[in-house]
Amino acid sequence: MKICVVAYKFGTEKEIGEHLGTYHYFIEKMRRLVTLGHEVTVVAPFLSFFKKGSVDVNGVKIKRYWPPMMASIWAWPLNRIIFFIYSVRTQKMVLEAVRQGCKIVYVWQARETGYAVAKIKHRLGVPFIFRQITAWHWHFQRTPKDIFGEKPWYKFFYKIGMGGILNFKLKLLLGKKRQMKYAKAIYKNADAIVFLSKAAIREGKELGLDESKSIDLGISIEENIFKPLGNKNDLRKKLGLRGKKIILFIGRINFEEKGIGYLLEAMPEVRARISDASLAIIGGGGESEKMKALIENLGVGGSVQILGRKPFSELPEYINAADVFVVPSIWMEAFGQVTIEGMSCGLPVITTDAGASPEINIDGQTGLVVPIKNSKALADAIVKILSDENLQKQMGDDARKRVMENYTYDAIIKKFLKIIEHTL
Q: Residue 261 — pLDDT band, cuts 50, 70, 90?
């Protein structure tokens, strides 16, 4: 089958950035579709304003065009013109792919891209499926600094004294009104909308989402990479990790979304009850200094290791070196990729009840689920698991089993192809 995949960004892992795990799985899924005999053509813009990017990634053909979608956000004051050009060029490339025999148009995020395709649905003549990675209101729940704070162009505008104007423009572009416009058009015109979870589907109801064409389909994982490895003590020595009972956090250092502050505030009580417990933190972000200040104020510096960002390929070893994996998110997690990475390595996980987390992590079976913004509940859950090796092993085994039954590439691709067949 000829499949046209439309993405606002696509390339090799080096081009995208190794720390972006979601892209790793997306790229790998496209490659595996090709190995199954499907002809996949990815329609994607230039990687940056002046850089075209690869035209073949592991057998997946990429048809490039200018301008990149992100330029329609940062290239103020020309962003409106650039977005118009981006939309028209996207539409032209998709229609060309259909004329060349593609039987399905599958848009993988972003809503700006989905909106461009939705506007030409009447001209496609083939089904249009939209893959929504986040809840529709994701953008306006976050500040421009949260999204773009570490981008060179964002820092440049601040350096020349135009940060305030830039933030104002970005809020308009990423705000509720505009995102609602995009989402409504997509929900109306798409033949199927694929969400990551039932929780994400519920969030779309307020925009008139037709549940009859809404499907929840999680993200696949490489179970042969994220798997139980060797001796924990050997891994800890290799990685330089301290402590006999290791708690692991992997994610963006963001207090209002990822809940890192509540995990840190749980550490004094955890240490009081389990003296050899330590916390390892992997990730980067604009609030790293705020995190360091909180660690100092709490007096837990001796039991917290800040490891910074790590390449995607190194994560399995760090996960396997830990005893429990904690995802203390506050905001609506549409899925929680990092959660199943921990589960796939055979670790019990502790998540909050935000968004889809309880769908992935089954409370009392694969780990524990606690209320959001609750350091005491986090501390109790951590202590409960670290204090009982039998419980830790049983939950870890059940976590791995759940991944193997539901989130392997074979399982996800099989469901994905059934979705396509249903729309044809």
A: very high
Distance CA 233, CA 215 (A): 42
Tell whether 226 is covered by a domain.
no
Residues 153 and 189 in one domain: yes
In a domain, 249, yes or no: yes
Residue 140 pLDDT exceeds 60: no
DSSP string covering 226-286, please? SS--S-HHHHHHHHT---SEEEEEES---HHHH-HHHHHHHHHHHHHH-TTEEEEEE---T
- Phi then psi for residue 177, to 5 deg, are -60, -45
Q: What percent of the chain has pLDDT over 70?
A: 95
**Mind spelling out the 3-state secondary structure of 321-343?**
HCCEEEECCCCCCCCCHHHHHHH
* pLDDT tens figures, 314-344: 999 999 999 999 999 998 778 889 999 999 9
Closest CA to 61 of 2, 146, 127: 2
In a domain, 247, yes or no: yes
Nearest to 247, CA basis, from 220, 273, 223: 273
pTM of the model as a whole: 0.88
Characterize 231-253 residue by residue with b for buried, 16 or more Cβ atoms within 10 angstroms of its Cβ, and e for exposed.
Answer: eeeebbeebebebebbbbbbbeb
**Res. 277: pLDDT tops 60:** yes
- Domain annotation covers residue 174: yes
Report pLDDT digits (tens) over 11-42: 988 888 755 667 888 999 999 999 999 999 99
For the chain, counts of helices (H) and of strands (E)? 21, 14
What's the CATH code of the domain at 257? 3.40.50.2000
351 and 414 both lie in a single domain: no
Cα angle vertex 272, ends 268, 274, to 5°?
A: 110
Residues 86 and 197 in one domain: yes
Q: Which domain holds residue 82?
A: 2-220+408-423
DSSP summary character for residue 363:
B
| Cα–Cα dist 75/67, whole Å | 11
**Does the structure show a pLDDT above 70 at 10?**
yes
